[in-house]
């Protein structure tokens, strides 16, 4: 259900952004609202509390956001509150942001390595990704995980390229266990 809610409202916001040629402005607003939501956990608690009536929640949305973000964004948030889906607002905005980035051919890559990369190495990875994908630029997210031993794991959307030594060792041990089973099966 949550995925349906985020897709429905996210697609509607994307259509408005495209029709009114306001993609960048609404993208910035969505980023800003996400920041507010993430930095103010109390706001989400109030907005999803069952004993606080919708009218008070709508007044709170107006008080916090009206005049600071566009009427379209305030209207979207009010609609989400009226339908009782405020708990899904973050996923709606994340979905919208992903749609805009896809539309603008901005890839989002998550790179995990065994050790910290230099700026030159990061630049090489970005250039290689631009050459081998449809994206014209990338938003890169780097993480260090020493358990990888060496190599790296790159995730773009639902696609994963895993060249880590940890995975290679795991695959090798699986292959060896299959061989041992076959040898054991042949014994008299």
TrEMBL record:
Keyword Plastid appears in the UniProt entry: no
GO cellular component terms, semicolon-separated: plasma membrane; proton-transporting ATP synthase complex
Locations listed in the record: Cell membrane; Membrane
GO terms for MF: proton-transporting ATP synthase activity, rotational mechanism
Family annotation (Gene3D superfamilies): N-terminal domain of the delta subunit of the F1F0-ATP synthase (1.10.520.20)
Annotated membrane topology: Peripheral membrane protein
The UniProt record lists the keyword Cell wall biogenesis/degradation: no
Keywords: ATP synthesis, Cell membrane, CF(1), Hydrogen ion transport, Ion transport, Membrane, Transport
Alphabetized Pfam families for the sequence: OSCP
Segment forming the signal sequence: none
Role played: This protein is part of the stalk that links CF(0) to CF(1). It either transmits conformational changes from CF(0) to CF(1) or is implicated in proton conduction. F(1)F(0) ATP synthase produces ATP from ADP in the presence of a proton or sodium gradient. F-type ATPases consist of two structural domains, F(1) containing the extramembraneous catalytic core and F(0) containing the membrane proton channel, linked together by a central stalk and a peripheral stalk. During catalysis, ATP synthesis in the catalytic domain of F(1) is coupled via a rotary mechanism of the central stalk subunits to proton translocation.
NCBIfam families: ATP_synt_delta
Family according to the record: Belongs to the ATPase delta chain family.
Protein name from the UniProt record: ATP synthase subunit delta
Taxonomic source organism: Roseburia zhanii
Lineage: Bacteria, Bacillati, Bacillota, Clostridia, Lachnospirales
Gene coding for it: atpH
